[in-house]
Amino acid sequence: MVKTIKDVIGSKGLDGEIVFVRDKDDVDAIFREIVDADVVYPDKAVITGEMIKEAKKVRLFQCGTGYDTVDLAAARERNIFVCNMPGVTARSVAEHAMYLVLALAKNDREYGLEMKEGKWNRGVGVELAGKTLGIIGFGNVGKIKAGIAHGFGMKIMAFRKNKEKGNEGLNFVDIVDFDYLLEKSDIVSILLPLITHGNYRTEGLIGEKELGKIGGAGLGWLINTSRGGVINENDLIESLRNNVIRKAALDVYETEPLPEDSELRKMANVLLTPHIAGETKEALVRRYTLIAENAIKVMNNERPRYIVKEPQG
Predict the structure, then answer these.
(1) How far apart are CA 109 and CA 264, in angstroms?
(2) Residue 264 belongs to what domain range?
(3) How confident is the model at residue 42 (pLDDT cuts 50, 70, 90)?
(4) Active site residue 275
């Protein structure tokens, strides 16, 4: 795919080094990869201020939906654009988040494994119609998931930072306060970005107190397809162990890849996927198209799309 993007850029008479960071855990490898790059797609790699200082040629850090892994202050100081991709993976993430709800409702984890082991253990599932889905984060993904869940006959409520925006014409969605959503939802789905600083931090948003409220209402299920850091993972494990949260389905984790010895891997009431919610063919095409478009813009000294941090100059 990098070759395809380079071919597109070359067809415009431009020459630039495009780097997709391959090994997100090897700091030395990241240094080597980005030091001579013009455009960097970090994926899930952490780009530190020290790396940015040494990467003399970089003009754009093109992130995915989230941009929490790039030192924004250091990029701004170096006059480097940092952009993200709002909405590029929204449909894919929303569909995956709904798949996780359906999987929990049909006990997918147990049946799938047991059938492959030659067993025939039947059980009772749960209908989604009439159940209340609480969506934390009512952006692109939240609105799409609300529409999908509405098609299943679910009741939808959502919490959003800008409550005055309302439900934006989705009249089947009630915009409610945070605590009310936790206390009244059968299933809580987290669909907001990880923000680690400022007035609206989402890091650690869901801890012991919040998990207790979710567990005290309805089904007591929790879905997370946003970022692992939004939930205090130790508190979640304890709540699952004590049956406060009855079921959880997770695509993201505080540490990725999820450690082999994680307690989450051992729990029968947890469904796990390896951070793949946004990984679909359609989303990848949209992603790489935007990377090529923004690379061409910065090489032509034009403003790229979806800037999250303006350069100083």
Answers:
(1) 13
(2) 90-272
(3) very high
(4) yes
pTM: 0.88
CB within 8 A of 13, min separation 6: which ones? none
285 and 159 within one domain:
no
Same structural domain, 300 and 262: no
Q: What is the pLDDT of residue 312?
A: 64
Q: Which residue has the higher pLDDT, 112 or 234?
A: 234
Same domain as 137, residue 30: no
Q: Is 227 an active-site residue?
A: yes
Kindly name the residue from 110, 183, 256, 293 that is annotated as catalytic: 256
So what's the pLDDT on residue 59?
95
DSSP 24-90: TT-HHHHHHHHTT-SEEE-TT--B-HHHHHH-TT--EEE--S--TTB-HHHHHHTT-EEE--TTSSH
How many structural domains compose the chain?
2
135 and 199 housed in the same domain: yes
Q: Which of 150, 275, 286, 305 is catalytic?
A: 275
| Residue among 91, 160, 227, 287 flagged as catalytic | 227
DSSP symbol at 206: B
Same domain, 107 and 204: yes
289 and 145 co-located in one domain: no
Could you report the per-residue pLDDT of 242-300, keeping only the tens digit for each? Answer: 999 999 999 999 999 999 999 999 999 999 999 999 999 999 999 999 999 999 999 99
* Spatial distance between the Cα atoms of 149 and 230, rounded to a whole number of angstroms: 23
Instruction: Name residue, tokens 């890091």.
Output: 203
Q: Are residues 82 and 106 in the same domain?
A: no
Does 183 share its domain with 63? no
CATH number assigned to the domain comprising residue 229: 3.40.50.720
Task: Reply yes or no on whether 256 is catalytic.
Answer: yes
CA atoms in the 13 A half-sphere facing the CB of 106: 9
Which residue from 145, 167, 163 is spatially nearest to 223, judged by alpha carbons? 145
